[in-house]
Amino acid sequence: MRVLSTALAAGLLLAGLAGAASAEPRHGLSPFGDLKYPADFKRFGYVNPDAPKGGTVRLAYGEGSFDNVNPFILKGVRLRGQGGLLMQLPFETLMVAAQDEPDAVYGLVAESADVAADRLSVTFTLRAEARWHDGTPITADDVAFTFDLLKTKGAPAYRLPLRDVTGVEVDGPRKVTYRFDPKAALRDLPLIVAALPILSRAYYGKTEFDRTTFEPPLASGPYRMAEVNPGRSIVFRRVEDHWARNLPVNVGRWNFGEIRLDFYRDRDVEFEAFKGGGYDFREEFTSKTWATGYDFPAIRDGRVVKEILPDGSPANRQWFVLNLRKPKFADRRVRQAFDLMFDFEWTNTTLFYGLYERSTGLFHNTPMAATALPDAAELELLNPFRDKLPPEIFTQAYSPPKSDGSGNNRPQLLKAARLLDEAGWRIKDGKRRNAQGEILDIEFLEDSPTFERIAAPIVENMRRLGIDARMRTIDAANYANRLQGFDFDIITIAWATGQTPGIAERNYWGTDSARATGGVNYPGVMDPAVDMLVERIANAQDRPSLTAAARALDRVVMGNQYVVTQWTRTEHPIAHWNIFGRPATKPDFDLGFLDTWWVDAAKVTALARAGRSPQ
Question: What are the tens digits of pLDDT across the range 260-282?
Answer without folding.
Answer: 999 887 888 999 999 999 999 99
